[in-house]
Write a structure and sequence with these properties.
Largest sheet: 2 strands, antiparallel
Radius of gyration: 67 Å
Order of helices and strands: EEHHH
Strand content: under 5%
Number of helices: 3
Structural class: mainly alpha
Shape: rod-shaped
Number of strands: 2
Low-confidence stretches: 1-7
Mean pLDDT: 84
Strand order of the largest sheet: 1-2
């Protein structure tokens, strides 16, 4: 038999190789088969394929990043434009509000002037009406006083010369 057994403490060997030698021979055979079957080339191809896929993924990620940065820049520009537009709208609204306030002040002053004029006209009309009423009462009072005085001081004899003179004046006017 190829295997020799030695006394206790001795190592077993076959064809002059111990266990470590046979493991080494087996490994050389496995490596030889792997080289003959072109396993390193297959493994290299698989690694190259994975490297290519990883590179492709990184390129896609870089492109996506560029697109994202472009979109970000676009939205920042739009945001800035919207901010500027909002500020312009606010400025226009403030100007319009100031204009409306000025117009309201002018309209209010005109309204106050018209109402003041109307009030003055009403006061003037009331004064004229009061003056006319006072004059009418004064005329009525004067007429009543004159009637009372005439009735008290004139009798038929005093009225005759006045009536004759009035008739004479009418006669002259008719001729």
């Amino acid at each position: 038999m190829l295997l020799t057994m030695l006394a206790e403490g001795a190592e077993a060997s076959a064809l002059g190789l111990n266990a470590t030698g046979w493991v080494s021979v087996g490994m050389l055979i496995v490596f030889g088969i792997m080289l003959w079957a072109k396993v390193p080339k297959i493994i290299g191809g698989m690694l190259d394929k994975q490297i290519a896929e990883i590179k492709k993924t990184l390129d896609e990620a870089a492109n996506l990043r560029k697109e994202a940065e472009a979109l970000k820049a676009e939205y920042e520009a739009k945001t800035a434009g919207a901010q500027a537009e909002a500020e312009a709208l606010m400025e226009n609204a403030e100007k319009e509000a100031a204009s409306l306030v000025k117009q309201a002040e002018v309209d209010t002053k005109a309204l106050i002037a018209r109402r003041k004029k109307m009030a003055e006209e009403k006061i003037g009309a009331a004064e004229r009406s009061a003056i006319a009423a006072v004059r009418a009462k004064a005329a009525t009072a004067a007429t009543q006083a004159a009637e009372a005085l005439i009735a008290a001081r004139h009798d038929a004899a005093a009225d005759k010369p006045l009536v004759d003179k009035a008739i004479g004046d009418i006669g002259k006017a008719l001729n």
